[in-house]
From TrEMBL:
Stated name of the protein: L,D-transpeptidase
Active-site residues, record numbering mapped to chain: H252 (proton donor/acceptor), C270 (nucleophile)
Domain L,D-TPase catalytic: 160-294
Pfam families associated with the record: Big_10, YkuD
Length: 324
């Protein structure tokens, strides 16, 4: 289909990153309301004189929509619309055809099914900033379905696009196309292989911000180290943490080691920033903001968090249930 907020919230991969937070971050997306119960189905007939019991119709409804509505948050220009149904969708094409996206400033977009219950909408190019986008699921039009239609309006905020150069150890933040800040950083140092992947390297690719916490607890449990006596053990309270993947990558304030910022990569995979820079970045961050990371040999997987921009447009559209 081609038609088309200060809270922020967050499929973990086999290869986790070293800045992994304690526990799984709570998604802030609110569940949509459920509709009235489905009515009884028409009675099916079999050979006389016996009659089959009435067939029970199954109602398909929406369990969750991400992101939240315009009254709760503003989102970045890379944001996806993530729709989760309350049961497996049998006829994906029929359901997808009833999903509508209308933007004040339209851009091409398409749906991609990532599971039997979840479908994601991504645009071909980034959303235009400072506008409203209306999502409608016309579920009442699905044959035999008695669920009500569902709508949600999103508010797109400032176009925050950050470029992290792990070789130059710098992050440049652009707001609505203009450079707003340069921040000295330190990225993943590398050196820890797991299943052939160096999990101490920051992943290169187009990340989206998924959520943030003013203080995040980060531990070494992601690599199976839970004994405080182990020299590899750590448990730290990290300020100004903005999550950019499911595998534990954040942009956050460096916990000391300021001498490395702007000079070398020394983190466990996260993007460490100066206290002033990290706090500023946390303050402007919206879910769905773009964070492009370059300079490492570890590629970001498109299934890691909201990294859907890792697929080109042709690849993305191939996940639609509708024929071209």
């Amino acid at each position: 289909m081609n038609r088309v907020p200060r809270l922020l919230a967050m499929v973990a991969l086999v290869s986790a990153a070293a800045c992994s937070a304690e526990g799984v971050p709570a998604l802030q997306a609110s569940a949509v309301r459920t509709t009235a119960a489905a009515g009884a189905a028409a009675t099916a007939h079999i050979a006389a004189p016996a009659k089959a019991a009435p067939a029970k119709k199954v109602k398909l409804d929406i369990a969750d929509i991400t992101p939240m509505a315009e009254t709760s948050e503003k989102v970045g220009v890379g944001f996806p619309i993530i729709v989760t149904f309350d049961r497996d969708v049998k006829d994906k094409a029929a359901v997808e055809a009833l999903l509508e996206v209308q933007a004040d400033k339209p851009v091409d977009g398409a749906w991609r099914w990532v599971s039997a219950r979840k479908v994601i909408y991504r645009t071909k190019t980034y959303w235009k900033p400072h506008q409203k986008v209306l999502f409608t699921a016309r579920l009442s039009q699905l044959p035999g379905n008695k669920a009500e239609d569902v709508t949600r309006r999103f508010a797109v905020g400032t176009a925050n696009i950050s470029v992290v150069d792990t070789r130059k150890h710098q992050m440049k933040v652009y707001r609505d196309g203009k450079i707003a800040k340069k921040i000295a950083i330190s990225a993943g140092r590398g050196g820890l292989l797991r299943n052939g992947v160096d999990v101490y390297l920051t992943t290169s690719g187009v990340h989206l911000t998924m959520g943030k916490k003013s203080v995040e607890t980060m531990t070494s449990s992601w690599m199976g180290v839970t004994d405080p006596k182990d020299p590899r053990y750590y448990k730290e309270e990290i300020p100004w943490a903005v999550r950019i993947s499911d595998s534990g990558e954040y942009v956050h304030q460096s916990a000391g080691y300021y001498q490395y910022l702007g000079r070398s990569n020394q983190s466990h995979g996260c993007v460490r920033a100066t206290p002033e820079g990290a706090k500023w970045f946390y303050g402007i961050a919206q879910r769905g903001d773009v964070v492009k990371i370059t300079g490492t040999k570890r590629k970001l997987d498109w299934r890691n968090g909201w990294s859907y921009w890792q697929l080109n447009w042709t690849q993305w559209k191939a996940g639609s249930a509708l024929k071209p």
